[in-house]
Design brief:
There is one protein chain. 33% of the residues are buried. The strands form three sheets. A two-stranded parallel sheet has the order 1-3. Strands 2-4 form a two-stranded parallel sheet. Strands 5-6 form a two-stranded antiparallel sheet. Mean pLDDT is 91; it is low at 1-19. The radius of gyration is 21 Å and the shape is globular. It has 363 residues and is mostly helical. The chain has 14 helices and six strands. It binds fe (ii) ion (FE2) (2 copies). Residues 103, 106, 134-135, 138, 215-216 line the site of one fe (ii) ion.
Length: 363
């Protein structure tokens, strides 16, 4: 099993925290799941009439609550996980923690939106409240899985202690749309892989992904419909530039995170790079249905440059794990920071694909 230098540093940090009971939240970095807040009044004042029918149809889907009885632990969980080797267990617990945090972050944002829009925009409010119901189930289910390893995330503490990133509503729409759709592709890809290779299913959580990912897909469709109701978010040059930015930010974050954690995917019988490249291609294709522009991820430059950033991050982590004084560390890190900035700039400026024109052709 792969155990890179930077994973060893991570391991040290994890071992301090892998104690029975409540798990201390991980140190925040640029790559950890974020918590968001927004301009609630601006969302409340949004006129959704240009796409109200579609939003009502999605609300009916949310009300139908197809997964009401899905997140119930069956007897397959009633066994001991002692036989899992230490590396797999550690990586899996980290996966659970990151996923639980991400799901919980969605829960908090949607719940607050549901609460704040109740009187001013009841249709959107109910959609947000029902999505927060789904996210609460998802994060609860993951936290329960952590308890099988004698750990739990203190979600109340997380709510209070995390820093919240403020995003204007349109940025919340881009970011959450993409994270819902990428979540869908991540879950369904793992599910389908394990369906074909059940010998790699080391814990029963993954078989829940089939219905689970449909929740994420519906959430993504909701944000698609919201953006269509606000034409300025998907039309014009400014929208094109922001959509490109968010696609790149979301794809790069996932790729750089996952190649650092290739051991987890290996335990599932997956190659982290192939898995991520597939998920990114699929999410990019999906985004073409609503975003005016998507990225040319088939250009070999795209993943090559992300690979360079991955190497830079390995070097940055290695420098972090030395005992050198801060100033020296900074000087050593500088070239890697500059290289990362350069790669991102190049990726951002790489010729994009006109999704809108493509949609025109298909029709
Ligand atoms: Fe979710
Ligand atoms: Fe979701």
């Amino acid at each position: 099993m792969v155990n890179t230098a930077n994973e060893q540093g991570q391991q040290q940090q994890d071992q301090e925290q892998l104690r029975p009971g409540i798990k201390a939240p991980k140190k925040e970095t640029l790559l950890t799941p974020r918590f968001y807040t927004t301009d609630f009044d601006a969302v409340a004042k949004m006129d959704i009439s240009p796409n109200e029918d579609e939003l009502r149809a999605i609300l009916e889907e949310f009300r139908a609550d197809y997964n009401k009885k899905h997140f119930i632990r069956d007897e397959s969980f009633n066994q001991s996980w002692e036989n899992l080797d230490e590396g797999t267990r550690r990586r899996f617990v980290e996966f659970l923690e990151r996923s639980c945090t991400a799901e919980f972050s969605g829960f908090l944002l949607y719940k607050e939106l549901g609460r704040r829009l109740k009187n001013s925009n009841p249709l959107l409010a109910e959609c947000f409240t029902l999505m927060s119901r789904d996210e609460a189930r998802h994060s609860g289910f993951l936290n329960k899985a952590m308890s099988d390893f004698n750990l739990a995330l203190d979600l109340g503490f997380l709510t209070k202690s995390r820093k919240y990133t403020f995003f204007k509503p349109k940025f919340v729409f881009y970011a959450t749309y993409l994270s819902e759709k990428i979540g869908y592709w991540r879950y369904i890809t793992i599910y389908r892989h394990l369906e074909e290779h059940p010998e790699h299913e080391f814990y029963p959580l993954f078989r829940f992904f089939k219905n689970w990912c449909q929740d994420e897909n519906r959430h993504g469709d909701f944000f698609d419909a919201v953006m269509q109701s606000q034409p300025y978010t998907v039309n014009g040059l400014v929208a094109r530039l922001w959509c490109r930015f968010f696609l790149l930010a979301v794809f790069a974050t996932m790729y750089l995170n996952d190649i650092q954690r290739s051991g987890f995917y290996e335990a599932l019988g997956l190659d982290a790079r192939e898995y991520d490249q597939y998920v990114i291609k699929k999410t990019n294709e999906t985004a073409a249905r609503v975003f005016p522009t998507i990225l040319d991820v088939d250009n070999p430059n795209f993943f090559n440059r992300l690979e360079i950033c991955g190497k830079n991050n390995e070097n940055l982590n290695a420098i972090d794990n030395t005992n050198a004084p801060r100033a020296i560390k900074f000087v050593r890190k500088l070239p890697y920071y500059i290289s990362n900035g350069w790669q991102f700039l190049n990726l951002y400026l790489q010729k994009a694909i006109d999704a809108k024109a493509q949609r025109g052709v298909v029709r």
